[in-house]
């Protein structure tokens, strides 16, 4: 049984068959959300919300995580008091082969071209 089952703090996520390409693309079109996804992809595991140092308010950060979760890009679970985030790579790779890898590679090239760290 997971912490969320015990505490009743489970967060809603779309089932894999409910994930739509246009919703995923919309979620990934924002620079802050793309930054979150890039960090999660590099970590190859769960990261807490507090790990991310985004140049936006806490409420805006919460909004970005909610958009990513509701689109099916990430999975969020509570572990104790921490909200942990993980990329739904297996689901996304199965539904949209090569999309995530292509997008992450393009974001890396853009970041190098523009000389930024985002």
From TrEMBL:
<feature type="domain" description="HTH arsR-type">
    <location>
        <begin position="13"/>
        <end position="107"/>
    </location>
</feature>
<keyword id="KW-0238">DNA-binding</keyword>
<dbReference type="InterPro" id="IPR036388">
    <property type="entry name" value="WH-like_DNA-bd_sf"/>
</dbReference>
<dbReference type="InterPro" id="IPR051081">
    <property type="entry name" value="HTH_MetalResp_TranReg"/>
</dbReference>
<dbReference type="GO" id="GO:0003700">
    <property type="term" value="F:DNA-binding transcription factor activity"/>
</dbReference>
<dbReference type="GO" id="GO:0003677">
    <property type="term" value="F:DNA binding"/>
</dbReference>
<dbReference type="InterPro" id="IPR011991">
    <property type="entry name" value="ArsR-like_HTH"/>
</dbReference>
<protein>
    <submittedName>
        <fullName>ArsR family transcriptional regulator</fullName>
    </submittedName>
</protein>
<keyword id="KW-0804">Transcription</keyword>
<dbReference type="InterPro" id="IPR036390">
    <property type="entry name" value="WH_DNA-bd_sf"/>
</dbReference>
<dbReference type="Pfam" id="PF12840">
    <property type="entry name" value="HTH_20"/>
</dbReference>
<keyword id="KW-0805">Transcription regulation</keyword>
<dbReference type="InterPro" id="IPR001845">
    <property type="entry name" value="HTH_ArsR_DNA-bd_dom"/>
</dbReference>
């Amino acid at each position: 049984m997971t912490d969320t089952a015990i505490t009743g703090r489970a967060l809603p996520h779309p089932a894999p068959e409910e994930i739509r390409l246009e919703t995923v693309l919309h979620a990934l079109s924002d620079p802050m959300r793309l930054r979150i996804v890039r960090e999660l992809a590099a970590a190859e595991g769960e990261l807490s919300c507090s790990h991310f140092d985004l140049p936006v308010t806490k409420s805006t950060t919460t909004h970005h995580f909610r958009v990513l979760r509701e689109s099916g890009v990430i999975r969020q679970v509570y572990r104790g008091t921490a909200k942990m985030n993980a990329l739904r790579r297996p689901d996304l790779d199965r539904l949209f082969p090569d999309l995530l890898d292509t997008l992450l590679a393009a974001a890396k090239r853009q970041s190098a071209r523009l000389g930024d760290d985002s």
